[in-house]
Amino acid sequence: MTEENRCGAGKVLIVGAGAIGAFYGALLAKAGAEVSVVCRSDYDQVKQHGFLIESHTLGTWTFAPSQVLSNAADYKGTADYVLLCTKVIPSADRVALIRPAVSAETAVVFIQNGVEIEQEMLAAFPDNEIISGLAFICCNRVKPGEILHLAYGRLALGNLPGVVSHKTRQLCELFRQSGIDCTATENIVTERWKKCVWNAPFNPLSVLSGGLPTLDILQSQEDFVRNIMQEICNIAEACGHHLSSHIVNANIENTYAMPLYKTSMLLDYENGHPMETEAILGNAVRAAKRLEVACPHLESVYALMKLRELQLAELHKKYNPQYREPVSHRPDD
Amino acid sequence: MTEENRCGAGKVLIVGAGAIGAFYGALLAKAGAEVSVVCRSDYDQVKQHGFLIESHTLGTWTFAPSQVLSNAADYKGTADYVLLCTKVIPSADRVALIRPAVSAETAVVFIQNGVEIEQEMLAAFPDNEIISGLAFICCNRVKPGEILHLAYGRLALGNLPGVVSHKTRQLCELFRQSGIDCTATENIVTERWKKCVWNAPFNPLSVLSGGLPTLDILQSQEDFVRNIMQEICNIAEACGHHLSSHIVNANIENTYAMPLYKTSMLLDYENGHPMETEAILGNAVRAAKRLEVACPHLESVYALMKLRELQLAELHKKYNPQYREPVSHRPDD
Question: What predicted TM-score, i.e. pTM, was given to this entire model?
């Protein structure tokens, strides 16, 4: 790594150094950037030993962040990029998580799932460059400070509104130097909708079915899956993002060709973690309502996910001594 | 009980003497009929000791069936009525279960849930009187041969096609003598759709939510529940069964007024028993397709129930040594 690269790379703060954040942070560090991390649950381990990255395609290495922090407010210096890599869930305030580390010159980058998640950032940081990012990757945190990168890794980055800035190109270049495919696109919002075409059916259906892999879902209920996919295309269209008419067929065919696969939402569900129901489904349904696009299948799936989440919350109440077990005293239904 | 009553009552064979069958059989016996039962799982217990019926409203008594059989083919004599009281599930052949005991003079009665469950019986027994029945009752089998009747008990009976025959009136009269409200109706098929307005949302939503009682479902997703109810009304209308425009509101209000309640489908689900998905949802969706009525919310709920059932079936395969656990090796979704 030359000194020139290191200078061009600049300073990066990763907020939410779970599997995705730690992996991409490790890549940027490899490419010469000065990378710090905010991580909460694994703070002690990472502070002492850094991250161990084991990648099936890029080898194994240790990533020792420049600063290991439990809060963005503790960041010393001025970040060129703040990369938010948390899940998008109602309990995590995306703006508050990064605000203390965002200076006038900082580009705010988020590598996160979901649709219509830009406005919150644009509103909170009206004078900063905002870069929206999507990761197509399979990697897991196997234990504190240990990240296993199983496959893929492509990133798509683009500015809001739809342009590609110098800083975005620079970030792309760094990722490419580290061995990862990274695309700069003027249509990052369209890319989000495209990803949502797959996520909107398979993520919730894997949870609501009680854990079926994607192939079983497709083989049993292809029409239902297609209906949800088409509704996402219709909402995207109304939002000004035309998706190719082949996208539904292509997603169906690709999913038939995939090996047995558990969705990320199912993994969250099985591990008792909060799910990205609002970012993926809620935001799409709200966009549909705003633009008066019918999406009854998507709406049904969203309603059922809300019920499932409510039931998970109720389970906790069982330990409350005031809890009454439901009883049957209604005519047989 | 006078001898006259006993003669008028005639001979009844109950097929499927679970909670519902045993309870209504016990009532008919109380009113003077000669009641036999086909019961499989509790055969030994019932053969030796009969049924113990404990009713919160009608007292406690023992019901000693005239014949206790494990198969309808063993029935001796000619039944005036064969009452089928099983759940309506694909694995139980309704016609085969009763055929050996159905003679030319036998009225075929079914006290079962679901819509569009008549045709199968009409086709199988074209020369017999067919009486369709609906029970509004809360009763459980608490252990082999012991039935607990918690509340309600109203029956609606009607012939197919829509008339009320002498035999139906006679059966109604017997039930009334035993202390149970029984209505003879020329619109029993309409009654089935009415019951379905409540069942179609609450039964599957209680299962798919993972066990929420009806009030929680309603408080969280009233619009979704209303959409499903309205779709059932639209399908019923297309089938020639006009339901009052107030039925959706009335069902919503009644459910708000109900105490915490677990649906019968949820109880089946929790006990690992097959669910009446096809009788309640599948038949309604098929009627909608036949008559080209849109029902996207109902369709979604049905598709998800099929996925849930598929997953329950897959769970069994886990014990098969050839089973492969699904793994994640796709770009993060």
Answer: 0.90
